[in-house]
Amino acid sequence: MKRTDFIPNAWLKAIEEMLDSFDGAILIDKTGKVVLITEKYADLAGLNRGEVLGSSILDYFPDSRMLEVVQSGEPIHADLWEVNGVTIFVSRMPLSWDGEIVGACGVSLFQYVNEAKEWAQRVNNLDLELQYYKNQVRKLSGARYSFDSIIGNSPAIIDAKSNARQLAHARAAVLLTGEIGTGKELFAHAIHQESPRRERPFVRVNCAGIPQIHAESELFGYEEGAFPGARKGGKPGKLEIAHGGTIFLDEIDELPYPVQAKLLRVLAEGETERVGGNRINLVDTRFISATNIDLLKAVKNHAFHEDLFSRLDVNVIRIPPLRERLSDIPVLCENFIKQCNGELDTNILGLDEEVLELFNSYDWPGNIRELKNTIESMCKQARSGILQVSQLPPSILCVSGEPLNENDYSLEAQMNAAEKEVLLKALQSVHWNRTKAARLLNIHRTSLYAKMKKHGLLELYG
Prior knowledge:
The chain is an alpha/beta fold.
């Protein structure tokens, strides 16, 4: 067995054992003579190792590129190479000693192309699985509704949708105004869904649902040790989470005045600072806000920050109340009945004409939300067939002048009806601001919530 003198025999044995771990390997000196060939490579090529060693590589592999590597000193990676009818991937690398190229080594990365294809398929499957989980996260944290979800053909709703579509592609902040239950959140979802940010987070914040003492840390986050009970390591705020996407601030008027001032800095400069921190974070977040009160009046009463109002008042979309789009009631009812049939396993075929007449004469203080809950309540009672006047809730029957059934004359029913009427009047007088309503009724806000839930007002009017 011939050996060359550029690699000592002891070293050559060690190198042979190392290269034997590959599917195939071959080593030549600078003249092209084969110094080493592994058993796997010889078997794959159908050659006798003893005959190949010491021979020119071109005698057995006329198309070999090993000498090209020796002459250029440059490696050739992952090259397709056919040996004895089998296609393999080969990488060829130059060997140097004291700065001089003394030979080259070739090793196969995959014995068969099919193995490479299987490997590529496994990687592809992992990519698909990762994409699936990304999509699931996007569904949970993204917008659920589009403009197609906003039902109606009345001029009022068509005008509102048109204005929203025009603003969807801009980066500017949008302010949605309208009464409780008109569908402001639906519009916020649709604007995000139509925007270039649709693939990024859509973060919803109900400002009225955050305790005022926690409003700042909820929006801006906090650092470790910022206050007693602060989480170890701190916590990112909603504004950081919405980076690159959209943040929807529902009932923005409920934010404490100092937080409003801090929010102004984010709108103006794109800068946030966590509670207890001293580091400025840059965020790229689009703002969509909503309110059911007159913000200008709130500014005059020093309840809302004037500069923040000036920023928000540029792009305003007014969502019309249901009483201004009564022509949409039939198609809305049809849509809600279809939803109920799918979710409640009912078989409702439609509405009695008399019910539609009463719907058109009712004022709908709770707007779309009240209509949806009314239809759901009627579907639960009827289960099948046509929805009748007898299945209408007392609140609509009383206003319409329809006779009540005998159960509605009980003392308990009368007291409940009176309490509900007082709650409605108080809430409507303060534009559904629950803090002000509780103060007006001289009860705790928690008690107001409980009574609203008891009479179905919390579900109807949020």
